Structure formats: structure tokens, C-alpha cells
């Protein structure tokens, strides 16, 4: 298998893994601690690959796939992921060279922005306000960010994928 095909397979495989890991059921007390995996993986690829592979169209397709798999309002996650990828690509040149702790804070800000967008969409859809534990997920995602980033980078280096 040539390197270009392996690179594409790794890219698509990681996004499929993110979508499938979003579907893993957790017990009710642990549900607020579940990170938003598609956002974390798209952020990683947006920072590493930039406009070469990750764009708003890909974010929209991944979001629609997540909407269909999760059974939520169609376009909800697509809009949220498009907003997140747009911001990440806009500030990519700065975010890539931040130390890991600053990058983690930036990811936390992006994930909190994602929660605010979700709150707005669900409020307009007529749902009631979520409990306070609903805001835990962005902090868990930000805490996992350094480990996810280093793991994905290490796997890319081991597979010799550029």
C-alpha cells in the first residue's frame, strides 16, 4: 500500500472511529462526562492538515453523519462542527504553535462555544434548559485533548504518514 493511500485510510478511519465512539452507551451517571469525539478528531485534523483535507464541506458531512447516527435534529451537529472547524482553520497558524496548555485552553473555548450553539439550537427547538452537569463534557474533552493529540501524532509517526 502506498503512503498516500495509507494516509487517506488513516484519516478516514480516525473520523469513522470518532463517529462510532460517539455511539458508545454509558450509564446515566457517566453520560455528562462523555466527550464530543467527532469535534476532537476534526480539530486534530484541522490543526495538522489544515485546508488540505479538512474544510467546511467535510465538517458538514461528518456532522450530518453524526446527526443520522445519533438521531438528533438533522443539521444540528453539522452546524456546530462547521462553526468549530471554521474557527480552527481561521486561527490554525496561531493554534499550531501554542504550547500544549494554551492549545488545551483554546480547545476548551471551542468546545464551550459548541455547547452554547447546541443550547441555542435546542432552545429554539422548544426543549427545556439542560441541567448543570451538561456543561461537564467540554472540560472532559479539553482534559483529553493533550493525550489525543500526542497519541494521534505518535501513531502518524509510527505509520510514517505525512
UniProtKB/TrEMBL annotation:
NCBIfam families the record matches: shape_MreD (TIGR03426)
A GO BP entry: regulation of cell shape
Residue stretches spanning the membrane: 56-74, 95-112, 132-152
InterPro entries: Cell_shape_determining_MreD, MreD_proteobac
Species annotation: Dyella solisilvae
Gene, per the UniProt record: mreD
Gene Ontology CC terms: plasma membrane
Subcellular location: Cell inner membrane; Cell membrane
A family per Pfam: MreD
Family per record: Belongs to the MreD family.
PANTHER family in the record: ROD SHAPE-DETERMINING PROTEIN MRED (PTHR37484)
Keywords recorded for this protein, A-Z: Cell inner membrane, Cell membrane, Cell shape, Membrane, Transmembrane, Transmembrane helix
Function: Involved in formation of the rod shape of the cell. May also contribute to regulation of formation of penicillin-binding proteins.
Chief localisation class: membrane
Name listed for the protein in its UniProt record: Rod shape-determining protein MreD
Membrane topology: Multi-pass membrane protein
Amino acid at each position: 500500500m502506498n503512503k498516500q493511500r495509507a494516509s487517506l485510510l488513516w484519516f478516514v478511519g480516525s473520523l469513522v472511529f470518532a463517529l462510532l465512539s460517539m455511539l458508545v452507551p454509558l450509564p446515566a451517571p457517566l453520560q455528562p462526562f462523555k466527550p464530543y469525539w467527532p469535534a476532537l478528531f476534526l480539530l486534530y485534523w484541522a490543526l495538522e492538515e489544515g485546508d488540505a483535507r479538512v474544510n467546511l464541506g467535510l465538517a458538514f458531512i461528518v456532522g450530518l453523519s453524526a446527526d443520522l447516527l445519533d438521531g438528533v435534529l438533522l443539521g444540528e451537529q453539522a452546524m456546530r462542527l462547521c462553526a468549530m472547524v471554521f474557527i480552527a482553520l481561521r486561527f490554525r497558524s496561531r493554534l499550531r504553535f501554542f504550547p500544549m496548555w494554551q492549545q488545551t485552553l483554546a480547545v476548551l473555548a471551542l468546545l464551550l462555544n459548541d455547547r452554547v450553539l447546541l443550547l441555542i439550537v435546542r432552545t429554539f427547538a422548544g426543549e427545556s434548559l439542560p441541567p448543570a452537569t451538561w456543561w461537564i463534557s467540554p472540560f472532559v474533552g479539553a482534559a483529553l485533548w493533550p493525550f489525543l493529540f500526542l497519541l494521534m501524532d505518535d501513531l502518524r509517526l509510527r505509520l510514517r504518514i505525512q
